[in-house]
Design goal:
6-stranded parallel sheet; 707 residues; Arc Repressor Mutant, subunit A; 5 domains; Rossmann fold; binds zinc ion; alpha/beta; binds adenosine-5'-diphosphate; 33 helices
């Protein structure tokens, strides 16, 4: 056997990802190795594959006792003999496992660092009796005082390295700044280690930061875009956890709390229900997640700012380990940085206080930055990038913000004229010169009365909300909130600076295009859920969401095609194959989906669904377009960004409501295509650079993707 066959037969994957193969080669050749990889990149494969190929035992040192059982279950489920030793087991259980280790039945043994040196029969003694082939140190950043998660017991591992000079050590971590990196090699006393540093980018995660006013409203907006998805909502305090969980339950969400103040049993049960997909949302203090390995977490929300970028990166990293699109949202308020600052002051070690304070400052900068969030994160971890990501709130808003200075000035001065004593609804009545009896007579003589009558009520509402969102207006009072200007607004009025606002709707959504059959996916998930009940394992141990999505894309109807699906190895194909194939076949029958005759390629097997209907907003754009308005004019009319209108039109072409040829002639399409074929990627930028003003982005996009 070689690494590739182990990967295919046991894990069901066709290819190694990123640095996995080089790391495995380095380890197999006996070298000490350090692997820095982001969460979800697949660190465990780097020692699990060698474990199956090396003659002796692979020891995995991990601080996360709670995770061990899941990891071992997952390994056993694919036929890899693994076990763990920790304090939760009885001594007879521990003896039994030790015996199996000595007789070579167990290839992978998980232990916590403190177990190595302490306790009655230490792991050290056990190791004297076996051949140790490899030691994997997981979460290796815990060895460094410069890190955010220092654990003194890790320091002893240096001693351990010396004792077992023949076995290579593999240190793995998902988070480490430069100082911590150097520290890992030194403190673990690694012998001229090979370094493998992967990109820390998590391209499937969308990052968003918003101000924490109306937090709960914003949270429910956000959640309404994730129906049925699993996710974590983090709060700073226990009370925050309790309140948020309660409010979510009141809105009908399947949400449960998790914090240290809860009864241990309750806490564990809640965690378990979340892991088993029995509830969708867990509301937790940051302690939650250290011990879970759930791969289908679709969103992570921070109701409060974390203490440092490392923690933020690690906590958000719990989203989307299966590689599918996931979203993270952080609520930021200035108050949090003060609270956290105080918490740090109360820490014991003064050297540590300084380190932590600097880290907090960087976290605040992250929240306040007007730069691409992903670039900020990557640069924080020492990675230089050339381009903005296009997949974070800052990037979304960039091209989408419009100059709203004049309208903003109208609204701000109306608020001032009304002595900051009224709510948004009333301000709008005045601006639009309403005849309603609700408007006091005195206000009908104000200079601002009726100055905004050209614009719709919806327009002013959007503007008002954006002014609040962007920190120009503040609402106070519970029952009848009234609007006040912030210092920022006064400043802007004085300097007559531009006020740019995102006037687009639904800023909390990202359109995702997935080609899978949603109905089938639902059925497959149901099957997975009942199998997970039957075998008493978490659903993701059976198959990840990513694997089910692939099944719902390629409709495997026999064992062979099933094994082509990523994540289906020999053992799982054997154990669950028939069940899943049956559901696929049944579904195809019920929905009249023809079975492919010959063995098709994956692409050919892919099915297309009927074209979607345009959204209401797209239809409105279509109406303007049919009246002959230009994109710019439509954008103005609708108070929306140019880019938004362009994307409406693109979708309308895709959905066949507008013909390609109404945007471009055949010759023009041919010209664009001919040049595009000389280019490597699919990016539009090089095309735009080449053609200049001759074609718009919309035309280039339509010609290359739809014509
Ligand atoms: P990490 O420990 O780095 O967070 P894991 O080892 O838990 O990541 O792996 C994350 C997910 O990616 C798991 O579901 C794992 O099975 C999957 N995975 C790992 N390697 C590959 C690969 N080469 N191809 C496809 N999926 C992989
Ligand atoms: Zn970005």
């Amino acid at each position: 056997m070689n690494p590739r066959t182990v990967l295919k037969d046991f894990f069901g994957y066709d290819h190694f990802r990123g640095n996995q193969e080089s790391i495995i080669t380095s380890v197999m050749s006996g070298k000490d190795t350090i692997a820095l990889m982001p969460t979800g990149a697949g660190k465990s494969v780097c020692y699990q594959v060698p474990a199956m190929l090396l003659p002796g035992l692979t020891l995995v040192i991990s601080p996360l006792i709670a995770l061990m059982k899941d990891q071992v279950d997952a390994l056993n489920a694919i036929g890899i003999p693994a076990a763990f030793l920790n304090s939760t087991q009885s001594s007879s259980e521990q003896r039994f496992i030790s015996e199996e280790v000595v007789t070579g039945k167990i290839k992978l043994l998980y232990v916590a660092p403190e177990r190595i040196f302490s306790g009655g029969n230490t792991v050290l003694e056990l190791l004297e009796r076996v051949t140790l082939s490899l030691v994997a140190v997981d979460e290796a950043h815990c060895v460094s005082q410069w890190g955010h998660d220092f654990r003194p017991e890790y320091l002893k591992l240096g001693k351990f390295r010396k004792k077992f000079e023949d076995a290579p050590f593999l240190a793995l971590t998902a988070t480490a700044d430069t100082l911590t990196r150097k520290d890992i090699a030194e403190k673990l006393e690694l012998l001229s280690p090979e370094w493998f540093i992967s990109s820390f980018d998590r391209p499937n995660i969308t990052y968003r930061v918003v101000l924490r006013n109306d937090a709960f409203q914003k949270l429910s907006d956000f959640l309404s875009h994730h129906p049925g998805d699993s996710g974590i909502v983090y709060c700073l305090s226990r009370k925050g956890v309790e309140d948020t969980a309660e409010k979510l339950q009141a809105q009908g969400y399947q949400a449960l709390p998790y914090h240290a103040g809860l009864d241990k049993d309750v806490r564990q049960r809640n965690q378990e229900q979340f892991i088993k997909d029995e509830i969708k949302i867990i509301v937790a203090t940051v302690a939650f997640g250290m011990g879970i390995d759930k791969s289908n977490v679709r969103f992570v929300v921070h109701m409060n700012m974390p203490q440092n970028v490392e923690s933020y990166y690690q906590e958000t990293g719990r989203a989307g380990r299966d590689g599918l699109p996931s979203e993270v949202l952080l609520f930021y308020s200035f108050g949090d940085s003060i609270t956290l600052g105080r918490m740090i002051e109360n820490a014991e070690n003064p050297a540590h206080i300084e380190v932590m304070k600097k880290k907090l400052d960087r976290m605040v900068t992250f929240c306040q930055t007007q730069r691409c969030r992903r670039r900020f994160l990557l640069e924080y971890f020492g990675e230089q990038t050339k381009e903005d990501c296009g997949n974070c709130d800052v990037c979304f808003q960039k091209g989408n913000k419009l100059d709203m200075t004049i309208f903003s000035q109208m609204m701000l001065s109306a608020v001032v004229r009304l002595k900051e004593a009224f709510g948004l609804g009333y301000v709008i009545l005045v601006l639009r010169g309403s005849q309603s009896a609700k408007v006091q007579d005195a206000h009908k003589t104000l200079p601002v009365y009726g100055i905004g009558k050209d614009r719709s009520e919806a327009f002013w509402k959007k503007l008002g909300n954006q002014l609040v969102q962007e920190g120009y207006l503040e609402a106070s009072g519970q029952e009848y909130p009234t609007l006040q200007l912030t210092p920022l607004a006064w400043e802007k009025l004085k300097t007559k600076d531009k006020i740019m606002l995102a006037m687009e709707e639904g800023t909390l959504t990202t359109p995702t295009h997935q080609d899978h059959d949603k109905g089938l996916l639902e059925k497959l998930k149901n099957l997975r859920f009942s199998l997970s009940r039957k075998f008493n394992v978490p659903p993701y141990i059976i198959f990840s969401d990513a694997t089910l999505v692939e099944m719902a894309t390629y409709y495997p109807t026999d064992r062979n095609t099933l094994k082509q699906i990523n994540g289906v190895g020999e053992m799982k194909a054997e154990k669950y194959g028939n069940d899943f194939i049956r559901v696929v076949k049944q579904y195809m029958l019920e929905h009249d989906i023809p079975t492919p005759s010959a063995k098709p390629t994956r692409a050919a097997q892919k099915r297309t669904t009927a074209p979607e209907k345009p959204s209401e907003s797209e239809l409105e754009t279509l109406a303007w377009y049919q009246k002959g308005l230009s994109v710019t004019r439509i954008a103005e009319e609708r108070g929306m960004a140019f880019g938004t209108i362009e994307s409406h039109l693109f979708n309308l072409v895709e959905k066949k409501f507008i013909a390609c040829n109404s945007l471009l002639t055949d010759d023009e399409i041919a010209e664009i295509k001919a040049f595009s074929e000389t280019q490597d990627g699919k990016l539009l930028r090089p095309l735009k650079d080449h053609f200049g003003e001759k074609y718009t982005y919309l035309q280039l996009k339509v010609a290359t993707r739809l014509a």
